Amino acid sequence: MDALHIANSLTRQKERFEPLNPPFVGMYVCGPTVYSNVHLGNVRTFLTFDIVYRYLQHLGFKVRYVRNITDVGHLTGDTDDGEDKIGKKARLENLEPMEVVQQYTNDFHDVMNVFNILRPSIEPTATGHIVEQIEAIKQIVDNGYAYEVNGSVYFSVRTFSEDHPYGELSGRKIDELLNSTRELDGQSEKRDPLDFALWKAADTSHLMQWPSPWGMGFPGWHLECSVMSTKYLGETFDIHGGGMDLKFPHHECEIAQNVACNGESQPVKYWMHGNMLTVNGRKMAKSEGNGFTPEELITGNHKLLEQGYSPMTVRFFMLMGHYASTLDFSNEALQAAEKGLAKLEKAVETLATLEPSTGDATYDVQAFAAKCSAAMNDDFNTPILIATLFDGVKAVNGAAAGRVALSAEDIASLQGTFQAFLRDVLGLASEASQTQSEGGGDDAGALLDLLVDMRTDAKTNKDWGTADKIRDVLAAQGITIQDGKDGSSWSRG
After folding, report:
1. CA atoms within 13 Å, Cβ hemisphere of 1
2. How far apart are CA 29 and CA 459, in angstroms?
3. What is the pTM of this model?
4. I want to staple 80 with a disulfide (CB 3.0 to 4.6 A). Which of 197, 391, 439, 449 is the partner?
5. CB atoms within 10 A of CB 482
6. Domain total for the chain?
């Protein structure tokens, strides 16, 4: 496969990647709703598109990567009911909503740093784009695809479906959707149970609200992504990504909103969706008691974990499964990942010490590099890339044992290939470099800061066992925690 191909969720086909305006690529990924700590399932989604971002850059594309922060409008119910998730959290903890937003945005960034996930080009917030969302709603209303009721504005799915297809992305038929929904009981403002909110009226008790032509209120969750993606990437752009669970209704609603507002038949050329994590064959979920936080993974402080695992081990484990496939999380799988990553790191160290052979080379390094590229060109197939890298490990170990002959140029080429695919594309930072003295680098510093913050939270919640375990884990690495009246800090030695 000589060019990048992407499995397009919209067409259900693997298609050659041809950006709209090469060498520029526009990519949008639905970011977190910042009302709680990041869990491992979230990490996998953002890791998936970190790989996409990295590989597109590796190919020489100039990527504008937009990943939003949802800081208002995401309700606790799936059908425009319930409280705003951030407002609810603020009320429960007696905080300002923006305190909640800042706290969990910081946590999100800390976790992304720990797992070596690159920052996007632009990270817009929903609250920073209220004006643009109101203008989009006005346009959709003017185009006849939305209506106002008691200060709320709803998108009319039935009206839209008369002019445009609805349900193409998820494969849902409008008639089937209508037949499967419950009849409205007369209490709902919606004309139809499939309609969804573009703007919700807010009473005086609602913590987050803004003035609009329809009264005080706040935007709908689906609308936010439509507005922010098109503002920074244009009315049509190359790639839109997110978790499989967002395909319906969130992404389906995004498409409908974009078409209703801008008139484009298809706002996104390639849709991509990452699959979920399971734990011992069961869906990872808080309610199941099998959801892991980064803190629990690093410390091993979870009933389902036999030990703690480094961030790069976890990253490597996730890359051992294709992004579109479910990935089962188990101690056995993590321990295998730990051993596999150690072999790769050892090979990189060995490669740096190899002396060129005097005879003819016996390993085709160009073919090795080509196989690495072919794996990634096949819909970002990281499991195949990893298997190919292990073929390179065999060659390195064979050279060290005198069984494989490598020229100086071969060694340099192998070093370049491992650097490109292990470090740059897969983003597997050397763990040795993360724990060196002199601060240990940005990734190590972020990890240590996160662990100290986690220990502080544990102490606040009187979870002394977790607090002590974090202290002991850090002490074993030569890290000392100092507790003071202004908080806690860490130092080496």
Report:
1. 19
2. 35
3. 0.88
4. 197
5. 10
6. 3
Whether residue 136 sits in one domain with residue 190: yes
Where among 394, 411, 433 does a domain terminate? 433
Sequence-distant (≥ 6) Cβ neighbours of residue 236 within 8 angstroms: 20, 264, 266, 267, 268, 269
Q: Is residue 492 part of a domain?
A: no
Residues 261, 328, single domain; the answer is: no
* Amino acid letter, 471: R
Domain, as residue range, for 357: 278-433
Same domain assignment for residues 165 and 112: yes
337 and 380 both lie in a single domain: yes
Last residue of a domain, one of 211, 243, 274: 274
**Which residue matches tokens 């910042």?**
34
Asked whether the bond before 249 is cis by omega within 30 degrees of 0, the reply is: yes
If 0-12 CB within 10 Å is exposed, 13-18 middle and 19+ buried, where does residue 475 land? exposed
Same domain? For 56 and 204 the reply is: yes
Residue 487 within a domain: no
Domain assignment present for residue 372? The answer is yes
Note the pLDDT tens digit of each residue in 418-432: 999 999 999 999 876
Q: Are residues 367 and 255 in the same domain?
A: no
Per-residue pLDDT of 327-345, as tens digits, reads: 998 899 999 999 999 999 9
Residue 426 lies in a domain: yes
Residues 11, 93, single domain; the answer is yes
* 314-331 residue pLDDT tens: 999 999 999 999 999 889
Distances (CA, A) of 288 to 99, 278, 284: 29, 11, 7
The pLDDT tens digits of the residues spanning 93-119 come to 999 999 999 999 999 999 999 999 999
pLDDT tens-digit map of 36-94: 988 888 899 999 999 999 999 999 999 999 999 999 999 988 778 888 999 999 999 99
